[in-house]
Amino acid sequence: MKIPRLTGLEWLIFAIAAIGFIFDTYVLLMLPLILPPALAELGHLKPGTPEFTSWARWMFFVPALVGGFFGLIGGYLTDRFGRRRVLTWSILLYALASVASAFATSIPMLLILRCAAFVGVCVEFVAAVAWLAELFPKAEERENVLGWSQAFSSLGGLLVAITYGFVLKMTDRLPAIYGAHEAWRYTLISGVIPAIPLIVIRPFLPESPAWREKKAKGLLHRPNPLELLQPALRRTTLVTALIFACGFGAAFGAIQQLPQIVPGLPEVMKLAKPDQQQMVKGVQLWQEWGGLIGRVVLAILAVLIASRRSLLRIFQVPGLLILPLVFFYSHEMSLAAFKWGVFFCGLFTVGQFSFWGNYLPRVYPLRLRGTGESFAANIGGRMLGTSAAFITLSIVSSMPGKSPTIQMTYAAALVGLSVYAIGLIASFFLPEPNQEELPE
User: Fold this and answer.
1) pTM given for the model
2) Rg of the chain over CA atoms, in angstroms?
3) What's the burial of 411, exposed, middle or buried (CB within 10 Å: 0-12/13-18/19+)?
4) Residue 392 domain flag
5) Which residues does the chain have with pLDDT short of 70?
6) C-alpha angle 134-138-140 in degrees, rounded to nearest 5
7) CB-based contacts of 172: which residues, under 8 Å, 6+ apart?
8) Do the domain assignments include residue 432?
9) CA-based nearest residue to 380, from 68, 58, 66, 28
10) Which structural domain range is residue 217 located in?
């Protein structure tokens, strides 16, 4: 595949965008790793108990709900006040919230600070995609930059898994927080590290030329979110939000429950608790590597395949078959087979996420680009999609099985199958973009 030549400034923009996408994922995917030890310390709650399940539901669902609501407002602000300005403030918000959450003294305090971090992430993604799309108006160049920069998102999951494993080994050598050395607190603090170059450099990068030009000429009308539901955009708005929700539903309703499933697998139960935590990290790495490969495959195919529906189904159809089987039979597989299954679950599920960064800028006009992207990503993905975790944790006690782990695998398999099927059906109603250029 031909990679377009970029100038030095364009490479810097690409690098900063990639770091931003890495950090988004890094902050979000901390939760499955830090949740069990955090609830154990702050509330003396154990996995499998009703109290643990109740708080786990709220930890997954409430930040997504709050982030989705304020993310939609952030999309409006992106169209109203510019892409770069909103990017800078959103990064600052989730960097500070990540550090502050490491010093939580109660579960409600941790929940509130996770909500703040989620708001920053939800706003940053929308502003970054609109910014990149408009900085690279040539079709092939834009598809490559958006595809490859989003591929770096999966490095965030890899880095947080690696960081968590490293912190587990180094905990006793780090300064005590509230008189203790807890790995989950140091992992949360580490979230500020990637934000430093973003906060320093991004304010000096250019604003979107198309947005700036229309703003200067007085041609940029105030965005009206209700336009998204007018006949011209209604189908696009509703279908993209639904499919986006299904992708997030598979991730949060099934894949992100792995830290609760892995310790109960037959081969892992025999290990000591510290070794079980290392095994959780190891399985998470397999999933993250799968997600990274999936995003790379998407970046390559986005340029080669003209039909957006066909591109999306390359990931949906195999995922519909593989994810439910892996989770349903996880307690009967060898650990090695389960890791490979998790790898392919990550590949076909996470790979879909990069699709939207390439697709959404092509179906919304400039004045509504941030708002439209935000509706799909935040109302669809963050609010509706992540609620699948709430559903999984709500039905787990009703599932058959001799242990909480088996019940969790069945619940994850059922939710994963349902959202994949709905997403595949909805793909037949997904509008194809009318042109390669961005609509004005």
Assistant:
1) 0.82
2) 21
3) buried
4) yes
5) 1-4, 194
6) 115
7) 181
8) no
9) 68
10) 8-427
62-65 long-range Cβ contacts below 8 angstroms, 24+ apart: 62/111, 62/115, 63/111, 63/114, 63/115, 63/117, 63/118, 64/118, 64/252, 64/382, 64/383, 64/385, 64/386, 64/387, 65/382, 65/383, 65/387
Upper half-sphere CA count for residue 408 (Cβ side, 13 Å): 25
Angle at 189 between CA 185 and CA 194, to 5 degrees: 150
Short-list 119, 103, 281, 116, CA closest to 188: 103
State the Cα–Cα distance between residues 127 and 58, nearest whole angstrom: 27
pLDDT of residue 194: 66
* Signed CA dihedral, 117, 123, 124, 126: sign only: positive
The candidate with the shortest Cα–Cα distance to 352, out of 396, 322, 313, is: 313
The pLDDT value given to residue 4: 56
Report yes or no on 269 lying in a domain.
Answer: yes
Phi, psi of 301 (to 5 degrees): -70, -25
- Using alpha carbons, select from 283, 249, 258, 253 the residue that is nearest to residue 405: 258
Task: Give the separation between CA 32 and CA 263, rounded to whole angstroms.
Answer: 13
CB 315 within 8 A of CB 353: no
Q: How many CB atoms lie within 10 A of CB 230?
A: 10
Tell the residue number behind the tokens 């429950």, with chain if given.
Answer: 257
- Residue 380, domain CATH: 1.20.1250.20
The reported pLDDT for the residue numbered 358 is: 84
Query: Per residue in 145-174, pLDDT tens?
Result: 888 888 888 888 778 878 888 888 888 888
Identity of the residue numbered 389? A
Domain annotation covers residue 268: yes
Tally of domains in the chain: 1
